[in-house]
Amino acid sequence: MARAESRFVCQSCGAAHAKWGGKCDECGAWNSLAEEAARQAAPKGLGAGKGRAITFVGLQGDAQATARRSSGIAEFDRACGGGLVPGSALLIGGDPGIGKSTLVLQAMAALGLGKGGQKLDCAYISGEESLDQVRLRARRLGVAEAPVRLAAATSVRDIIASLDRADAPAVVAIDSIQTMYVDSLDSAPGTVSQVRASAQELIRLAKARGFTVLLVGHVTKEGVIAGPRVLEHMVDTVLYFEGERGHQFRILRAVKNRFGPTDEIGVFEMTDAGLAEVPNPSALFLGDRQQHVAGSSVFAGIEGTRPMLVEIQALVAPSALGTPRRAVVGWDGNRLAMVLAVLEARCGVAIGANDIYLNVAGGLRISEPAADLAVAAALVSALAQEAVPADTVVFGEIGLSGEIRPVSQTEARLKEAEKLGFAAAITPARRGRAKERASAGLKPREIAHLKHLVGMFENLQPAARRAGSSGRP
Asked: What is the mean pLDDT of residues 308-317?
């Protein structure tokens, strides 16, 4: 009897190797190669002349735009780009226990009850929990009466046979894709081959039958969705569920969306009755802010299409170590190092010998460069032990020469700050028409260089400021 051939497939990138090795040659991941059975032969019918000729058509046609399916949960619909598109596939990933299953079950119940205006036939297929466990969660969330079809299955063949019908459900949730398996493959569930094959079959059927499929995905310790990156390329929308377990806030962030804007977010609050949407995140993130405290500044940012105000906290303490410590939560550590270097070299602020702690309050992660000026304000405020005015918001990008660069959507940031009662703003200098569109109810103080921000703090000790600084304009 011929010996079955096998290959070793990287669980991170999907590359195949002839023999096992400690490191993948393609992506460089360690201990990621797993043995899988190779196919006995190549798929039949792929030779020249054996296929069926396809028909080409023009770009113009009579196809009409398909109406989105609204769930009635405004924050979920916002992250999806306005609702669910029929025939699309969504991948929802997040840390264990962050609330992925809770969010999906609430969305399915809302779709089944018609909170978005239309009652839809929904099916929830669980591969991790039993039917009784899902019912217990539904009872706790108060959605046990929702008309949602429930099943516990892991075989993709059985799921396809149940859904490949003319009366297929309008929305199908798979929790999770890592538990699904295709019986024609010899590898274990959760491996690259199984995850890729299972997702491919489910997505193919969803597009053929016109129903929306929601795939719940696990994440690795690095915070990315487990499995090959090709899984994210196969789906239409990728949503990451973010948040710290110590905080009650949860952020649903769209990192890919073929039918809507990317980097859009939906904000939720974890309660005893499940996830509650937050229509005004700025007021919630600033609700516990203590005013007149040194080392705190309010940043007016943009998340997707939504302006949002968050508090940035900084602590500067003398270091007893040869290498001062840098701890950053919610921001890029490399960007913090750049801001500190500009303060030292361009503004003469001796801050690098101290321990620096930076935190974005509320568990939100900020990635846009417009937060540079707010971070610098919090750092200088902590060093000078002088509070930033409580009614002032700060935003702007810092260049390596110390100049303050303009950022996009300035008016939206100022309007959001004015709506929440802020009276002043520290912003980059605007030119031309942008300067004429300044908000009438909020007084922006425009600065062109970082040294102008440092000069606002009168209590900055001479010991913390160098006598001379190079590179000043």
From this structure: 95
